[in-house]
Design goal:
CATH topology of the largest domain: Growth Hormone, Chain: A
Distance between the termini: 54 Å
Largest sheet: 2 strands, antiparallel
CATH class of the largest domain: Mainly Alpha
Strand content: under 5%
Strand order of the largest sheet: 1-2
Structural class: mainly alpha
CATH architecture of the largest domain: Up-down Bundle
Helix content: over 70%
Number of domains: 2
Number of strands: 2
Order of helices and strands: HEEHHHHHHHHHHHHHHHHHH
Radius of gyration: 21 Å
CATH superfamily of the largest domain: MFS general substrate transporter like domains
Length: 449
């Protein structure tokens, strides 16, 4: 039996949580940044970052504000994972379409990434992130209306907007690199990615406390909480100062022409793109239907939310050490470890449907995704010349999004039609084929270390 929550209490709680996130996180990350980074500032109207004296902490403050905004706005991601499956199961005309909201969100990210990049190139990072937060808030509102009216199409509209906004939030890592000196860019990017840990804890907690806020209609309160979180996430963005705009496409027009097909024929480029796509696809294949499978096995929405919470933690927590492991053992070794963990998570998932099975499978899945995805990204970066990166990395992200979309669509039909065990076992041939390909490429004369 789900606990009924007073309509006023959840709003009071998650508003306080957001306020604390904004103030405390900004203060602590500013102190951390003072240790890690020299003081930097960004010249208004320019795209360069210059080191300044102790009296000009503009870049330092911008970094702390970006970190706070990313942590708050990123809290919508785990909530969207949980809600997409459960609300989809509630409103979908057939159970096989239960994961359609998650699939639509993935497709929206594919469609919206380039327009948001161009928007930031014209109007600046600050305007772009505020616009993304506004789109997410509107998506949450549309989803609230969809649940209240029992309208599956309106729910899909809401998830499309949420997916587009999450694509916008991916640019936070680039913005972080733009406000620090060149030698600190990897550290800034890593810290920005690990801010997802706070989102991993905050998102499912807000979901649990707000899903019954508009009872007897389930989940409407949680979608409303996403809108409130996004409104709170705009606050630190309003205090950004002098943040340069994103590079425009015409500024790279003088670079040599890139034959993308020829580049993709290089073995290491092809295997890096394929490994990233497989890592993302297998993660989506197992993660998206997990809440549906858990509820079908008799567990509560709160149980499903907590499993997703620890899965997201496992996705981002290894980022503290993954880069160092790649330096120590090589990208190929980390990729192979990631693929082994992905296979292990599938075996765990197929071996039982108890709560410990779900927890352990999703945690191992998150770590496997991190190793596979980050390792593949490192392989790709090493395999490309500087003038090739923009075109090929864009195609890489497209391949990842397409693979994730296909797996998201397939997961709903598989978990309803074939069952959770068959779905989990279906990931093994994919991972096995990818691992054999990586080993084959490594044994070639041009193979990576």
């Amino acid at each position: 039996m789900l606990r009924r929550i007073d309509p006023v209490e959840p709003e009071h709680i998650y508003t306080q949580v957001c306020c604390v996130e904004t103030t405390v996180l900004s203060a602590h990350t500013a102190n951390l940044a003072r240790i890690l980074f020299p003081l930097v500032s960004t010249n208004a109207g320019k795209d360069t970052v210059t080191t300044t004296d102790q009296t000009s902490p503009t870049g330092l403050v911008n970094f702390a504000l970006l970190l706070a905004a990313n942590a708050i706005l990123g809290s919508a991601m785990p909530m969207m994972i949980i809600l997409g499956a459960l609300a989809g199961l509630l409103l979908a005309p057939t159970p096989g379409l239960a994961t359609l909201p998650a699939s639509v969100s993935t497709l929206a990210g594919l469609v919206a990434a380039a327009p948001f990049s161009l928007f930031m190139g014209r109007f600046g990072r600050q305007a772009g992130f505020v616009a993304g937060a506004a789109v997410a808030a509107a998506g949450g509102a549309a989803a609230v209306a969809g649940v209240l009216q029992a309208s599956f199409p309106l729910l899909l509209v809401g998830h499309f907007a949420l997916g587009a906004a999450l694509a916008c939030f991916q640019f936070f890592r680039f913005a972080a690199a733009e406000v620090v000196p060149d030698r600190w860019k990897p550290v800034a990017i890593s810290l920005m990615l690990t801010s997802g840990l706070l989102a991993a804890f905050a998102g499912p907690e807000v979901f649990t406390r707000t899903k019954d806020m508009l009872a007897p209609i389930p989940f409407a309160g949680a979608y409303g909480a996403i809108s409130v979180l996004c409104g709170m996430g705009i606050l630190p963005l309003l205090f950004l100062r002098g943040l340069g705009r994103a590079p425009r496409m015409e500024e790279t027009a003088s670079a040599p022409a890139v034959n993308v097909i020829a580049v993709l024929r290089r073995p290491m480029v092809a295997v890096a793109v394929a490994t990233a796509a497989v890592s993302q696809g297998v993660m989506v294949l197992l993660m998206v239907p997990t809440p549906i499978a858990m509820v079908g096995c008799g567990f509560t929405e709160a149980d499903a939310g907590d499993v997703v919470r620890w899965h997201v933690v496992a996705m981002f927590a290894p980022s503290f050490v993954t880069g160092f492991l790649i330096k120590r053992f090589g990208a190929t070794a980390i990729v192979m470890t990631g693929l082994a963990l992905l296979a292990g998570s599938a075996v765990i998932a197929a071996s039982g449907i108890t709560l410990p099975h779900f927890y352990s499978a999703m945690i191992v899945l998150g770590v496997g995704w991190n190793f596979g995805f980050v390792g593949a990204t490192s392989l790709l970066a090493d395999a490309l010349a500087p003038h090739e990166r923009a075109a090929v990395q864009g195609l890489n992200d497209t391949a990842i999004a397409l693979c994730a979309s296909v797996c998201a669509f397939a997961s709903g039909a598989l978990v309803v039609g074939a069952g959770w065990t068959i779905l989990a076992l279906g990931a093994l041939p994919i991972v096995g084929a990818m691992a054999l390909t990586v080993l084959w490429i490594k044994r070639m004369p041009t193979g990576a270390a």
